[in-house]
Protein backbone atom coordinates (compact mmCIF):
# COMPACT_ATOMS: atom_id res chain seq x y z
CA UNK A 1 0.00 0.00 0.00
CA UNK A 2 1.18 3.52 -0.75
CA UNK A 3 0.50 6.15 1.89
CA UNK A 4 0.54 9.78 0.78
CA UNK A 5 1.29 12.13 3.68
CA UNK A 6 0.37 15.82 3.44
CA UNK A 7 2.55 18.01 5.66
CA UNK A 8 1.43 21.24 7.35
CA UNK A 9 3.76 23.16 4.98
CA UNK A 10 1.87 21.88 1.92
CA UNK A 11 4.48 19.28 0.93
CA UNK A 12 3.45 15.70 0.22
CA UNK A 13 5.42 12.49 0.66
CA UNK A 14 4.62 9.05 -0.69
CA UNK A 15 5.62 6.10 1.48
CA UNK A 16 5.43 2.44 0.44
CA UNK A 17 4.48 0.23 3.39
CA UNK A 18 3.94 -3.45 4.07
CA UNK A 19 2.26 -2.70 7.42
CA UNK A 20 -1.13 -2.05 5.84
CA UNK A 21 -2.80 -4.69 8.02
CA UNK A 22 -2.51 -2.36 11.03
CA UNK A 23 -4.46 0.36 9.20
CA UNK A 24 -7.19 -1.92 7.81
CA UNK A 25 -10.55 -1.25 9.46
CA UNK A 26 -9.97 2.45 10.05
CA UNK A 27 -12.38 4.94 8.45
CA UNK A 28 -11.95 8.29 6.72
CA UNK A 29 -11.53 10.95 9.42
CA UNK A 30 -9.89 8.65 11.99
CA UNK A 31 -6.32 9.14 13.16
CA UNK A 32 -3.56 6.59 13.58
CA UNK A 33 0.02 6.50 14.84
CA UNK A 34 2.57 7.39 12.15
CA UNK A 35 5.00 4.86 13.63
CA UNK A 36 3.11 2.20 11.66
CA UNK A 37 4.54 3.60 8.42
CA UNK A 38 7.89 4.76 9.83
CA UNK A 39 7.00 8.28 10.99
CA UNK A 40 7.62 7.93 14.71
CA UNK A 41 6.01 10.65 16.83
CA UNK A 42 3.53 11.68 14.14
CA UNK A 43 -0.24 11.33 14.20
CA UNK A 44 -1.93 11.04 10.79
CA UNK A 45 -5.57 11.57 9.81
CA UNK A 46 -7.06 9.54 6.94
CA UNK A 47 -8.53 11.89 4.32
CA UNK A 48 -9.28 9.47 1.49
CA UNK A 49 -7.73 7.04 -0.94
CA UNK A 50 -8.33 4.87 -3.96
CA UNK A 51 -8.38 1.18 -4.83
CA UNK A 52 -6.25 -0.71 -7.37
CA UNK A 53 -8.62 0.26 -10.22
CA UNK A 54 -8.57 3.97 -9.33
CA UNK A 55 -12.02 4.25 -7.75
CA UNK A 56 -11.96 6.87 -4.96
CA UNK A 57 -13.01 6.32 -1.37
CA UNK A 58 -16.05 8.34 -0.34
CA UNK A 59 -16.87 9.30 3.26
CA UNK A 60 -20.65 8.99 2.83
CA UNK A 61 -20.55 5.28 1.79
CA UNK A 62 -20.33 2.90 4.76
CA UNK A 63 -18.20 -0.21 4.40
CA UNK A 64 -15.37 -1.44 2.23
CA UNK A 65 -17.11 -2.50 -0.98
CA UNK A 66 -17.46 -0.67 -4.28
CA UNK A 67 -20.91 0.74 -5.08
CA UNK A 68 -22.51 2.60 -7.97
CA UNK A 69 -24.26 5.70 -6.67
CA UNK A 70 -25.85 8.80 -8.17
CA UNK A 71 -23.52 11.75 -7.56
CA UNK A 72 -24.07 15.47 -7.84
CA UNK A 73 -20.80 16.67 -6.25
CA UNK A 74 -17.76 15.58 -4.24
CA UNK A 75 -15.25 12.76 -4.76
CA UNK A 76 -15.64 10.86 -7.98
CA UNK A 77 -17.37 13.49 -10.14
CA UNK A 78 -16.52 16.65 -12.04
CA UNK A 79 -19.62 18.72 -12.83
CA UNK A 80 -19.81 20.42 -16.19
CA UNK A 81 -23.35 21.79 -16.06
CA UNK A 82 -25.58 23.05 -13.27
CA UNK A 83 -27.81 20.27 -11.93
CA UNK A 84 -25.85 17.49 -13.63
CA UNK A 85 -25.92 14.08 -11.94
CA UNK A 86 -24.00 10.93 -12.84
CA UNK A 87 -23.98 7.34 -11.68
CA UNK A 88 -20.42 6.51 -10.68
CA UNK A 89 -18.60 3.71 -8.89
CA UNK A 90 -16.94 4.66 -5.61
CA UNK A 91 -15.34 2.76 -2.73
CA UNK A 92 -16.64 2.82 0.85
CA UNK A 93 -15.16 4.83 3.71
CA UNK A 94 -13.35 1.94 5.45
CA UNK A 95 -9.75 0.97 4.66
CA UNK A 96 -9.47 -2.59 3.36
CA UNK A 97 -6.90 -4.80 1.64
CA UNK A 98 -8.12 -3.57 -1.76
CA UNK A 99 -7.05 0.03 -1.10
CA UNK A 100 -3.90 0.76 -3.09
CA UNK A 101 -3.28 4.39 -2.09
CA UNK A 102 -4.24 6.02 1.20
CA UNK A 103 -4.22 9.81 1.57
CA UNK A 104 -3.36 11.20 5.00
CA UNK A 105 -2.74 14.54 6.65
CA UNK A 106 -0.39 15.34 9.54
CA UNK A 107 -2.36 16.17 12.70
CA UNK A 108 0.45 16.07 15.25
CA UNK A 109 4.12 16.51 14.34
CA UNK A 110 6.98 14.53 15.80
CA UNK A 111 10.35 15.76 17.01
CA UNK A 112 12.13 15.06 13.69
CA UNK A 113 11.21 16.30 10.22
CA UNK A 114 9.59 13.84 7.81
CA UNK A 115 12.56 14.11 5.41
CA UNK A 116 14.94 12.97 8.17
CA UNK A 117 12.78 9.98 9.06
CA UNK A 118 12.48 8.91 5.41
CA UNK A 119 16.26 9.20 4.89
CA UNK A 120 16.86 6.98 7.94
CA UNK A 121 14.56 4.30 6.48
CA UNK A 122 16.44 4.28 3.15
CA UNK A 123 19.80 3.60 4.81
Shape: elongated
Provide the number of structural domains: 1
Main structural class: mainly beta
- Helicity, as a percent range: under 10%
Spans of at least 5 consecutive residues whose pLDDT stays below 50 are: none
> DSSP strand (E) fraction?
35-45%
Mean pLDDT: 90
How many E-type strands?
Answer: 7
Question: Quaternary arrangement of the chains shown?
Answer: single chain
Widest beta sheet: strand line-up: 2-1-7-4-3
Largest sheet properties: 5 strands, mixed
Distance between the termini: 21 Å
Order of helices and strands: EEEEEEEH
Task: Calculate Rg over CA atoms.
Answer: 16 Å
Number of helices: 1
Task: Give an overview of the whole structure.
With 123 residues, the protein is mostly beta strands. It has one domain (2-122). The protein is built from one helix and seven strands; from the N terminus they run E-E-E-E-E-E-E-H. The chain has one helix spanning 114-122; strands at 2-6, 12-16, 31-33, 43-51, 66-71, 86-91, 99-108. It has a five-stranded mixed β-sheet, with no helix packed on it. A two-stranded antiparallel ribbon has the order 5-6. The protein is elongated, with a radius of gyration of 16 Å.
